Amino acid sequence: MRYLTILGMMLFSLVSFAQTETAYIELKNEGNDALRKNDFATAVEKFEAALAVWPEEEAQDASMIFNLATAARRIKNHEKALEYYKKSVDMGYRADFSTYYIASSLNNLDRDEEMEQTLLKAIEDYKSSSVLAQMKKMLTTYYLKKGAEPYNQAAQILASAASADPEQYDEITARANNAFADAKPWFEKVLEIDPDNEKAQASLREINSRLK
Fold first, then answer.
1. pLDDT digits (tens, 9 = 90+) for 129-177
2. Same domain, residue pair 38 and 111
3. Tally of domains in the chain
4. How many CA atoms lie within 13 Å of 147's alpha carbon, on the beta-carbon side?
5. Signal sequence: where (predicted)?
6. Position 7 in a domain
C-alpha cells in the first residue's frame, strides 16, 4: 500500500512538472488565439503570463514579443507597447516595423525629442523598408506642427497691426519677424526629409519674403 502511495506521488509530481514545462507554450497559444479574435487585452494578459513562466534555458519567442507589443498598442497601452517593441528590436525581429511603432508610442506619450531621434536614425537604418514613407510622414508631421506654432503666432501679431497705432507698426513687425524666424528651421527640416512638401515650401516662401 505504501509503495502504491509513493508511486502515486511520483506520478503526480511528474505530471505537475510536465504541465509546468508546457504552460508557457499553452499560454502563448491562448494569446495567439485571443489576438486572432481581436481580443487584445486578453492577448496581452496571456502573453505576459507566458513570459512569467518561460523557462530560463529556452529562448523567448520573438514573434510573440512583437505580437504582445502590438496587442498593447491596440488597447492604447503605449508604455507597455514601447517596452515590448524595444525588446523586439533587441531580439532583431522585424526591427523596422518595431522601430516605427516605438516612434509612434513615443509620439502618443508626448516624448517628442525621443521620437524625433528614433525616426532620424530609423530613416538612415531602414532605407529599403516598406514603412520608410510612414516614418518620414510621422517626422514631417511633427516638424510641420512645431513650425506652425510660431508661424501662426507671427500671423496673429501682424493681424493686430490693423487696429494698432501707426507708431507701433515697426515694433509689431519686429515681433512678427522674430516669430517667423523661430518657425523657419522647422520648415527647413521638413524639406530635408521631404523636399517636395508643398506646405513647407509655401511657408518658407512667406517667411523669406518677410525676413528680407
1. 999 999 999 999 999 999 999 999 999 998 887 777 777 888 988 999 9
2. yes
3. 2
4. 24
5. 1-18
6. no
